[in-house]
Design goal:
heterotetramer, A alpha+beta, B alpha+beta, C alpha/beta, D alpha+beta, A: alpha+beta, Aldehyde Ferredoxin Oxidoreductase Protein, subunit A, domain 2, 6-stranded mixed beta sheet, 18 strands, C: 5-stranded parallel beta sheet, 12 helices, 26% helix
């Protein structure tokens, strides 16, 4: 069956590799993927561990449904204590790595220690080998993959690797696979880099038995139809996540010029439809029919003629909206560079925009920038800063440290212009008019994060009846729900519900675009319950899956609490409360978050979780979820 | 939905609708929502821009497929002017 | 009435083709052997004990009457009278309207002292295999390292014999692989315990009645069995006596319709010499797929339906303990005159070698990966210019577009990649 | 009129769902190594090409098989393997110009497309239309026309990008 995949414990210091099965008890409590990763991380680290030291562990995992006939089961999850925030670090990427890892016989890798010299892992049908990485150290993401494939003589090898940024311990370095599949947030690339682990190469030809193949095929077909017939999927399949730009910028929900404005009026040159001319087709992750990555060739500039994939919605934010650029080439080039260096697009965009505002305000001068003109809208400076940050040159060395450390180094008033939560930069969306989204980023377990609990469909102005259908399953909810996204009523439940939803989908290893994230008609708990049964034979009701999600979410919380997280960390920067929005449609103009109402939302959110006022788990919650004995010895 | 253990829930009569399927029934084609007033509006085929008949805000339109219009962006002048008017009016009333 | 001489793949394919086209015409198939049709390609597997004897046979004796084919098995044809259109079987004679000669080939036995001793075999028919299996000895020497020699050596090793493989030239399979590829195969054989002796000449086989050992120009080896696999010779005596033209390579000369120099007499299979599809030169190609295609062409033309034989392809594919060794077309060695360029590449455990002459691919060898090679075969057969393919790749023209360029029908991604590496 | 699988690499997104459903349909397991269809990828160029048995009229695999184990089934016109005769010599794998014959590493046997008894799952699941199950004559015409159009388009695009 699909559940016979193993955990491998790899100690890079001693070179010892050990494999263990995953017991059914663990499966039923944590499923796999992010859920089991949370458990393994909590149990394999001690409080206060140095994120870049040998005692931190790096977890690589595939969800329980990865490689099976549930659509888009492509997600690889990577976890560890974050070098960026110092809290729970976790990132999730698509591509083909996770399924290949399962075909090679493994669900989870627990990597600890630090190799003496650069190494990479070679995993093939149950065997794990630690190999010398001298030929690939210092190489970009693409070259690394080609060299490994060439060396092994197999085109089908899938490689997860860090780029030059990861080697240089840029605190928001990515792990990457293929051209642009990125494990972006929380600096997992730096974690791998600190272990001298350049890459993990996998190739597997072992069967994953599908428990009920006929039913699984038919049901998958049904799910695919359900997803691809949705308008949002069709649009995504044409442009990728760029399509979100039209709606958000039209309303004024975009953070531009760091955090000074909330709409970009001179955006004709960077609109998705403009980009469409440079794209020549779409591609996607394993088993996915939405295909949300565009294939393009950079039309102009220094990198003219280079092939790359993307860009994402985030890329527009990072290389256009935030630094105030208006040229498509900058977005495409920037996207290409961060992909090859292996860096978080979102974080780097925010850092550069922040530096630009500091330059505008005179906090940074030409002396600090080595003569580089960091004015808003200077496209060349944006590209130059990407190079400098990846190589940690000059100002780049400071910006590579992430929001809080960089602000500390620059000093003066610089922290005032940072837009972050728990030391992680915010997405370039402006959450001041949307309290639900603001609550999501403020409370997300890995710092400011729009993918942990964002009720994105809140922006669709859906009728209350539709919202109720969605948000009262599988747990009954009778409180208020409202269509108006500027409202505070009932939003904390939506955030709570979405948090459970995304956690479950991460445990399963399915892509978020195949769940209620951008489309209200997409599969959720009920469908997953069937998918689990048909593919793996595991019988879990929707409510049981919900409970698993609650348990694992709380485990992440427990990790953060152990690292010293307090209620005050679940909060936004002052600008959200004090500086009203200046542009946009009437609904959005002149909006701020109301401090009192926001505090009340957080109280509600804690209450739904069963947490006390300080955000700590109540004893009865611990007991209910079976977490009272953690750290445990299920291992 | 009642989850039935181990039963094949594939043939039409034995299948029960899930939440997402129920939600999907409200799906529409050829229309988009005005981003100002959230009215569902139907632009003429292949229109490049369209003014919301309810609130007067005007949107540039793109067509992912022949039956799906989406908002590409605002017609800046129109919308800015309308917003300014509305905001001025609100201020006048409020203060 | 059609008479077919020979019960190999060529003869049987010709018979089936004729029967398929004409349900009434009388077909007689004459063979000196008494077995129904078998496949020699499976003999090494049988020898290795991998499957039972029954699987060697492609037809049973009942299949012939069921198809409406008369058989005369176990009788030797003593002559052909093209004037009277008769086949002579000793005292009897058999008239024909059309004759198809598919007399095949026989193993070459070099004139070495002791070759007639008991325990000296060749491997061509199920009977040969049976005899080898009866006397599975402790030590066997395989003389000659063509594909059959190598496969036989592997089979005997799998049966637990101590095996020596002797090759006169300095590398094994000298006609099929160049140095590097041959040494890779030899390394695998050595690793599995087969002693590979190259550049060594068999001088004599020792023994009273039975084989007791051999003597080479370098050493003496004690052994219980000697398997001769130094090549095959076409059976053309009958044809020559009847006045049919036999070519310089020792095969019957046929037109592209598989007709011999005498009207009404066709020939196909191992006994003919044919044109190489890749370079247009005459060749002897004792390979299964060529014989089969020739049989089809002979069958058509003997019924008066015009069909042209496009030429032979040399393809060798060999399973060496799970590693696939593939070669087709020409090798570089011995081809120096032709301005030959070689591209060699190791990729992991796989090895590729492309032999290029004047911008055309004329041969390819690979050890390890079999799946990518088909594409190259067709680049070779179509005689496409590699530079042209390369320029198309640079322009990002991909397989479907290539199809439009008329070139592309057989171009596949692997071919493009191989060309792109130049 | 016989139907055949028509592939169009321009539409292929390289998701490999076809490989997955193929192995599930035939073997009841998820394992692309045992799939009858393969997607070849050039990641750094963005080219993905689905390769599947064309059921060639004059099939090289049938010609080279030394045991006549590759046979054409009459009804659908598929070239299949008679495993009672197959000796696993892989000559057909070598001879296939499309690399469309695969070798199953688990069962150690040669596998190739059998059109799923007339309902090819790869085509059924391919939403982008990169793999279609269409009538042979139509398919050829379609393919030629599309090829011509695509070529023209992509050349123009390349001109624009200054790449050609």
């Amino acid at each position: 069956m699909a559940l016979n995949r193993k955990i491998a414990y790899i100690d890079l210091s001693s070179g010892k590799v050990e494999t263990k099965p995953i017991s059914m008890e663990m499966r039923k409590k944590y499923l796999g993927g992010r859920g089991l990763d949370a458990y393994l991380l909590y149990n394999n680290t001690k409080a206060g561990v140095d994120p870049l030291g040998p005692d931190n562990v790096c977890l690589v995992s595939a969800g329980i449904l990865v490689g099976t006939l549930a659509s888009a089961t492509a997600r690889t999850h990577i976890a560890g204590k974050s070098p960026l925030t110092g809290y729970f670090g976790s990132t999730n990427m698509g591509g083909f790595f996770a399924p290949e890892m399962r075909w090679a016989g493994f669900d989870h890798l627990v990597i600890r220690g630090k190799a003496e010299k650069p190494v990479y892992l070679w995993i093939h049908n149950g065997e794990i080998e630690i190999r010398d990485a001298k030929d690939i150290w210092g190489k970009g993401v693409r070259d690394t993959q080609s060299i490994i494939r060439e060396e092994m003589g197999d085109r089908e090898i899938k490689v997860m690797t860090i780029g030059i940024a990861g080697e240089n311990l840029v605190r928001y370095a990515n792990v990457m696979t293929e051209i642009k599949n990125s494990g972006g947030r929380t600096g997992m690339g730096a974690l791998l880099g600190s272990k001298n682990l350049k890459a993990i190469a996998v190739r597997g030809t072992l069967d994953i038995k599908i428990e009920h193949p006929v039913e699984a095929l038919e049901y998958n077909k049904q799910i695919i139809s359900q997803i691809t017939s949705a308008k949002v999927s069709q649009e995504q399949g044409r442009l990728g996540t760029l399509f979100i730009w039209g709606a958000t910028n039209s309303q004024g929900l975009v953070r531009t010029r760091n955090f000074q404005l909330n709409q970009m009026e001179d955006s004709d040159g960077i609109e998705p439809e403009t980009f469409e001319d440079s794209a020549f087709g779409m591609t996607g992750c394993f088993g996915c029919q939405v295909h949300c990555r565009a294939k393009y060739i950079i039309p102009d500039g220094d990198y003219k003629g280079t092939y790359d994939e993307g860009p994402e919605y985030t890329s527009i934010g990072a290389f256009a909206a935030e630094p105030g650029c208006t040229d498509l080439t900058t977005i495409l080039t920037g996207n290409h560079l961060v992909n090859d260096y292996g860096m978080d697009t979102l974080e780097i965009g925010s850092m550069i925009a922040w530096a630009m505002e500091l330059y505008e305000k005179g906090i940074l001068t030409d002396k600090d920038t080595d003569g580089l003109d960091l004015s808003f809208g200077n496209e060349k400076a944006v590209i130059e800063m990407i190079h400098r940050i990846a190589h940690r040159e000059g100002l780049g060395d400071i910006l590579a440290e992430g929001p809080l450390r960089a602000a500390e180094k620059i000093g003066k008033d610089s922290i005032r212009y940072q837009v972050h939560v728990k030391g992680m930069s915010n997405l370039h969306s402006d959450e001041r008019p949307t309290p639900a989204l603001a609550l999501g980023i403020a409370t997300a377990s890995r710092g400011s994060d729009h993918l942990r609990s964002r009720p994105a469909i809140d922006l669709y102005h859906l009728p209350e009846a539709v919202l109720r259908q969605i948000y009262s399953q599988p747990v009954a909810y009778e409180g208020p729900l409202t269509s108006d996204y500027t409202d505070y009523e009932g939003k904390s439940w939506q955030v709570f519900w979405q948090e459970m939803c995304y956690m479950a989908v991460d445990c399963l290893g399915i892509c978020k675009y195949h769940t209620i994230f951008l489309g209200p008609n997409f599969p959720n708990f009920e469908e997953w319950s069937k998918l689990l049964y048909y593919n793996t034979g595991l019988e879990l009701t929707p409510l049981e899956i919900w409970t698993i999600a609650e348990r694992t979410n709380d485990l992440e919380r427990m990790f953060n609490l152990r690292e010293g997280l307090a209620r005050s960390d679940d909060w936004l920067v002052d600008a959200y409360f004090d500086e009203p929005t200046k542009l946009g449609i009437p609904l959005i103009r002149d909006r701020v978050i109301d401090r009192d109402k926001f505090k009340q939302m957080i109280d509600e959110f804690y209450a739904f979780h069963g947490w006390d006022e300080q955000g700590k788990l109540k004893p009865e919650t611990l007991k209910r979820l079976g977490l009272d004995k953690e750290p445990s010895h299920l291992l | 939905m009642v989850w039935r253990r181990g039963r094949l829930i594939l043939s039409e009569e034995s299948r029960q609708e899930t939440t997402s399927e129920r939600t999907a029934r409200g799906r529409t084609h050829g229309a988009f929502r005005c981003l100002n007033c959230f009215e569902r509006i139907v632009p003429p085929e292949k229109a490049e821009s369209y003014k919301c008949p309810k609130c007067g805000f005007e949107w540039r339109v793109s067509w992912p497929s022949p039956t799906i219009p989406r908002i590409r962006g605002p017609v800046w002048e129109t919308n800015r002017r309308l917003t300014d008017e509305i905001m001025a009016k609100e201020k006048g009333q409020g203060k | 009435m059609v008479v077919i001489l020979g019960n190999g793949v060529a003869g049987n394919t010709a018979a089936s083709t004729i029967r398929h086209l004409d349900s009434r015409i009388e077909i007689t198939l004459i063979s000196a052997e008494t077995y129904p049709e078998y496949t020699a390609c499976a003999l090494p597997h049988y020898l290795a004990g991998e499957f039972e004897r029954q699987r060697l046979f492609l037809k049973s004796e009942e299949d012939y009457p069921a198809e409406g084919i008369k058989t005369i098995f176990g009788r030797t044809v003593s002559g052909i009278d093209p004037e009277k259109k008769q086949v002579l079987l000793g005292d009897e004679s058999l008239s024909y309207d059309k004759l198809i000669m598919a007399t095949g080939s026989r193993p070459l036995v070099p004139p070495i002292p002791g070759v007639d001793l008991e325990g000296v075999f060749s491997l061509k028919s199920p009977g040969d295999a049976d005899r080898i299996l009866e006397g599975l000895g402790q030590t066997a020497v395989v003389v000659g390292s063509g594909p059959i020699g190598v496969e036989t050596a592997i089979s005997l090793k799998k049966q637990g014999d101590q095996v020596y493989l002797i090759e006169l030239l300095e590398r094994i399979m000298p006609k099929i692989f160049d140095e590097e590829a041959a040494s890779l195969v030899a390394a695998i054989l050595e690793e599995k315990g087969i002693r590979v002796l190259t550049a060594e000449k068999l001088v004599q086989i020792n023994g009273q009645e039975r084989v007791e050992g051999i003597v080479t120009d370098k050493q003496q080896i004690e052994c219980d069995q000697v398997i001769m696999s130094v090549g095959v010779r076409s059976n053309v005596e009958l044809a020559r006596e009847a006045g049919i033209e036999v070519g310089s390579l020792g095969g019957i000369v046929v037109s592209r319709r598989m007709e011999t120099s005498l009207e009404g007499i066709f020939a196909c299979g191992d006994c003919v010499q044919s044109r190489d599809m890749a370079n247009g030169q005459e060749m002897l190609s004792p390979l299964w797929h060529n014989a089969k295609r020739q049989g089809i062409i002979a069958g058509y033309n003997c019924l008066g339906i015009d069909k042209i034989y496009p030429g032979s392809e040399s393809i060798t594919s060999l399973d060496v303990y799970g590693t696939q060794a593939v070669s087709f077309g020409s090798i570089a060695a011995g081809n120096e005159a032709e301005d030959v360029e070689v591209i060699e590449k190791y990729s992991g455990d796989n090895y590729y070698r492309l032999v290029i002459s004047k911008g055309h691919l004329i041969g390819a060898q690979s050890i390890g990966n079999a799946q990518d090679m088909g594409a190259l075969l067709y680049v070779l057969l179509k005689r496409e210019n590699l530079d042209k393919i390369k320029s198309m790749i640079e322009q990002r023209i991909t397989p479907l577009n290539l199809r439009h360029h008329r070139v592309g029908r057989y171009i596949t991604p692997s071919a493009i990649e191989a060309a792109g590496e130049r | 009129m016989r139907k055949m699988l028509v592939t169009d690499y321009e539409k292929c997104t390289g998701c490999r769902l076809c490989e997955l459903v193929c192995s599930v349909k035939h073997e009841g397991v998820s394992n692309p190594a045992r799939s009858r269809i393969n997607v070849t990828k050039w990641e750094t160029k963005g080219i993905m090409v689905p390769m599947v048995c064309s059921q060639c009229e004059d099939a090289p695999c049938m010609a080279v098989c030394p045991t006549n184990a590759r046979i054409r089934e009459s009804e659908l016109g598929t070239v299949t393997v008679n495993y009672d005769r197959c000796i696993g010599c892989k000559t057909c794998v070598v001879a296939c110009p499309f690399g469309a014959i695969n070798f199953d590493p688990i069962d150690h046997k040669v596998i190739s497309c059998d059109l799923c008894e007339g309902d090819p799952q790869c085509a059924r699941f391919c939403e982008t239309g990169a793999i279609r199950y269409a009538e042979a004559s139509d398919a050829n015409k379609m393919r030629q026309r599309e090829a011509a159009e695509k070529l023209y388009e992509s050349l123009q695009k390349l001109d624009g990008a200054g790449v050609s």
